[in-house]
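Notes continue from the previous slide.

Worked example: a multi-chain complex. Inputs as given:
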Amino acid sequence: MSDTLTIRDLHVAVDGKPILRGVNLTMQRGETHALMGPNGSGKSTLGLAISGHPKYEVTQGSIELNGDDVLAMSPDERARSGVFMAFQRPVAIPGVKMADFLRHATTNIRQPDRKEGEELIPMREFRKELKGKMQQLQMDVEFARRYVNDGFSGGEMKRAEILTLAMLQPKFAILDETDSGLDADAVRLAAESIAEIGRDKMGLLIITHHDKLLVHNPPDFTHVILGGRIVETGGAELAAELHSQGYERIRKAYPQDDAENQAMLETEEPQSIG
Amino acid sequence: MATATQLGFNQETFDAFVAARDEPVWLTEARRAAWEHFQNTDWPARNHEEWMRTDIRMFKLDRFSPPQPTDAKASSIKGGLLCPGVALAGHNRSLDSHSLDLTLHKNWSDKGVIFGSLDTMLAEHGDILRPHFQSAFDPTHDRFASLHAAFWTGGQVLYVPRGVVVDEPLHMLSSMTDGGTDLGHVLVVLEDGAEATLLCETSSPTETAGGFHCGAVELVLGAGAHLRFVNFQDWGHGVWHFAHQRALVHRDATLQWTVAALGSRLAKVNQRVSMVGEGANCQVNGVLFTEGKQHLSYDTLQHHEAANCRSDFLYKAALQDKSRTVWRGMIKVDPAAQKTDGYQRNDNLLLSGDARADSIPGLEIEADDVRCTHGSTSGRVDEELIFYAGCRGFTRKEAIQMIVTGFFQHVFDRITIENVRDALALAIARRVREYE
Ligand SMILES: Nc1ncnc2c1ncn2[C@@H]1O[C@H](COP(=O)(O)OP(=O)(O)OP(=O)(O)O)[C@@H](O)[C@H]1O
Ligand SMILES: [Mg+2]
């Protein structure tokens, strides 16, 4: 049986301020979806709400994974049931080495019933696997000894998120601008790696403002989000249109959502995560 | 125990204590002078700078008595966290200041190393030890120092002769019965060019056990000597801990001093390092973890008396529940101490809204060509980090444990003894609870 992630009529607020206003989205494992929309339209918010960020309050609607209520789960339970998000702006964890962090994460994800304090996967085995994945991503193995995201360049952070994706092998992965901050070669490498790691094996929700990721991972569906609502869904050709023409047509077709989007942007505050 | 609690610290018990000890006259005289001073001194005033953040009104000396001998077996006492599986040059375990077993590898005794209980060794090797005893300790500093100097019992000593390099660690474990008293005095002397690693640990029978520790540590490093000293305070959470600790670091000597404190109900520690010879070098690594209503107070002084010395103090504390830490740090540079390189830092991680960390760094500089820096930080655990780790499968508790370990990593990295590092990381991770 294929895995299904179902989002129905999702409303999300931050500090009482509504941001998502009724998002519907169904994904099957193996499908690739593109989520596109102008700045501040709610793309990251959707990912963070799916992941269970405590600040993002679901005021209405449901999220289900194979019929299980995702909203009732803590962030780690969601991760262990196979939901993953590569962050637009990952946070640094000083003093914690990438390798130790990933070993613990990988153990918990592969053994979802593991209790606190139980054995982690053997160091030797883990190191070997990690090294293999890092080589695949053309990452220096020294990288694993650095502290999680601490002092990483923008590009390094994104590559670390892809490495994490490769290790955790989720059922569904939300990739939030995993191509931003990468130079041209790195973007191509990221796009190819994601295709190799995730395409067909996972349900991918690719959030992007560029076309490189989508060239290597042509979307089965493209969703356009504006003012906190998915206003249009199409195929790969819709993504292509948005890349070449921008959001002009969409804004005109959905003036009310466009107004919502503008209103949200005007009250925008600096974010620490997303 | 019933008779013990009736004893207390008074003229009668002092006279009986001295009479029962077969000690050289000079030592008895020193005890009498200290007892005299104790009687003529008040407990520290609440508005005294050193004590205004540390409330000892609940401390009642008459609930405790001079350490009583015990027939317990060394194998029955808890502790030994620092050295599982480590080949030791020697070890000395004591209960309520009375030594239970002592070993020193023959290899080292043949080379003139002295290791064991301070009271017996002072009697046996007075010629060697007397010049150093109380050279780094002031019995008149305050009433606790006087009480200690009058009644100190048992104690531990390590003496390493000139040029001898002890390449295996030595271990001292001081344990206390529930409600008992430990008045241990640690004296470490490394003659010129000597080297040693000393692991010093305290323990109680349970995590909640009470008691009274009033102790002193003296470290004397001769020219070019190198000492790695680890001081792990792991008393039960009912223990009153008062300690005066001081090091004298002579020319070109190096001291690496790791202080880890997890235990006691209230701790008031005076730690001083005096760089008395040119080119002396001292690194202090402090690791504090507090919970419940624990109160740990550290007063540190890095005293630069000679030129071209380095001192580097880093204290990190993580606090949960309603616990509290006070850290006062002072770098004092004498006029003669040109080219001083002094550094002090205190970082605190608050795991709950009710915990509180006071940090009071200070500089007192009388030389003009020096580099001294200091800093301190205090902050809560960042919820965004907990969320990020949660998205990678960490439970909230696992995430906090990891963040706490990461917080201490910088100071752990400076501790060059792997077993000590691992033991501390484990002991701390075990104590971290879940917080909303
Ligand atoms: N933690 C937060 N605190 C306050 N406002 C927030 C927070 N998170 C999101 N918002 C607001 O919600 C709206 C949507 O933000 P979101 O980050 O989801 O946009 P986005 O589509 O990902 O934009 P971008 O393309 O710039 O990444 C914005 O107006 C933003 O300011
Ligand atoms: Mg975003």
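Summary box: Residues A 43-44, 88, 176, 274 surround magnesium ion (ligand 2) (CB under 6 Å). Residues 4-89+170-266 of chain A form a domain with the Rossmann fold fold (CATH 3.40.50.300).
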